[in-house]
Specification:
alpha+beta, Phosphorylase Kinase, domain 1, Aminoglycoside 3'-phosphotransferase, Chain: A, domain 2, five-stranded antiparallel beta sheet, four-stranded antiparallel beta sheet
Length: 362
């Protein structure tokens, strides 16, 4: 893949225009759709360079560096084995997407926050955002203990004990208070501030960022009818006071199975915090739910500590967030050229479910 200048630099100012990076990043759809064809080749090319980088920064001889079986959307993942036998993970920025990528800084920050609460966390052994040691940003971390929920398989995710454990783990990381709303203010963190702050003045300002564009995109690609599009915008406009008054903490922002590890029935690591944000804890809950069929929700909510999922203080914000996430994820899927998965709800069905959730909550 040749290096492309995209004009996107991961600054606090630019973050104000982003709702979900995979949906809103200012890169052409053709480039995004080409990533799947080139990313594994790029990962192979980078192995030798990472050997030198890791040896130089850690001062330890490297036995081998190999690409992980699953790569990230905007990051290359490598498995590093030292001659001592220690195993590490190297994550570096995919070429052609960022002029400046702050994902590593956010990963370091989030893992420190988790450790400060005594929660499972990863040690960051090296971080370079200067491109001094390589022509890309990268970090080197411990290898997470356990196995990703993705690797466990779909059937394992119907286990109510497992679901409750995941809900309880999310409740723990939601102990980290935050201010403002939206993606974290990286300039604020660079100044040494330890309390997370979003780039927006408030949560409602973030949750409606690019809402019109996402609704219009779903309308254009045939996932919505005109009356439904108007109704969605009206729902969020009328919910301004409700959502603006919601509590704010540090959220993961993409709590899918690929980012959660379990060792037995214990959540042993939560990784990939580049989408972390300041917002309503129920947004993370709804984002998690968007990855799973409704039959799994109650066990998760029980573990999280939500006693009455039918209560209005839960049901309406949850439904609005589920709808908001669904809109963004469907635009993301369209931009990347992902087809509907056979045997699972179609994009149109997913959006219809989200719309119905709001109707049921009103």
């Amino acid at each position: 893949m040749t290096q492309r200048r995209t004009g996107f630099s991961d600054t606090s100012a630019n973050r104000r225009g982003i709702f979900y990076l995979k949906t809103d990043i200012p890169v052409s759809d053709s480039v995004l759709q080409g990533l799947r064809k080139t990313i594994h080749g790029e990962a192979l090319k980078r192995c030798k360079q990472l050997v030198k980088v890791v040896e130089g920064l850690l001062g330890a001889p490297v036995k081998e560096v190999t690409p992980a079986s699953t790569q990230g959307t905007f990051h290359l993942i490598h498995h590093v084995v030292l001659h001592s036998g220690e195993q590490l993970i190297a994550r570096s920025t995919t070429p052609g997407i960022f002029e400046c990528d702050e994902g590593g800084r956010l990963e370091l920050y989030a893992q420190h926050q988790l450790a400060s609460l005594g929660l499972p966390s990863l040690t960051i052994h090296a971080l370079d955002l200067t491109k001094e040691h390589a022509p890309f940003e990268f970090l080197v971390t411990d290898i997470a203990q356990g196995i990703t929920l993705t690797a466990l398989g779909d059937k394992a995710m119907d286990d109510s004990v497992r679901l409750a454990a995941i809900g309880a783990a999310m409740r723990q990381w939601h102990q980290i208070p935050a201010s403002g709303g939206g993606l974290l203010d990286v300039e604020w963190l660079k100044k040494g501030n330890t309390a997370p702050r979003g780039v927006h003045a408030g949560w409602y300002e973030y949750i409606t960022t690019n809402l019109d564009q996402h609704v219009q995109s779903c309308l254009t690609i045939g996932l919505l009818e005109n009356n439904a599009a108007l109704q969605i915008n009206d729902w969020f406009a009328k919910s301004m006071r409700l959502l603006a008054a919601r509590p704010v903490c540090m959220l993961h922002g993409d709590p899918g199975n690929h980012n959660l590890f379990m060792d037995g029935m214990r959540v042993s690591a939560v990784v990939d915090w580049e989408d972390t944000l300041a917002g309503d804890p129920l947004y993370d809950v709804a984002f998690w739910a968007s990855f799973h069929p409704a039959r799994r929700w109650q066990a998760f909510l029980d573990g999280y500590g939500i006693a009455d999922s039918g209560a209005s203080e839960f049901s309406l914000p949850f439904a609005l967030y589920f709808l908001r996430v669904t809109l963004a994820k469907l635009v993301h899927r369209h931009r990347f050229g992902y087809a509907d998965t056979p045997g699972r709800p179609s994009s149109r069905e997913r959006l219809a479910q989200a719309v119905q959730l709001v109707k049921d909550a009103l």
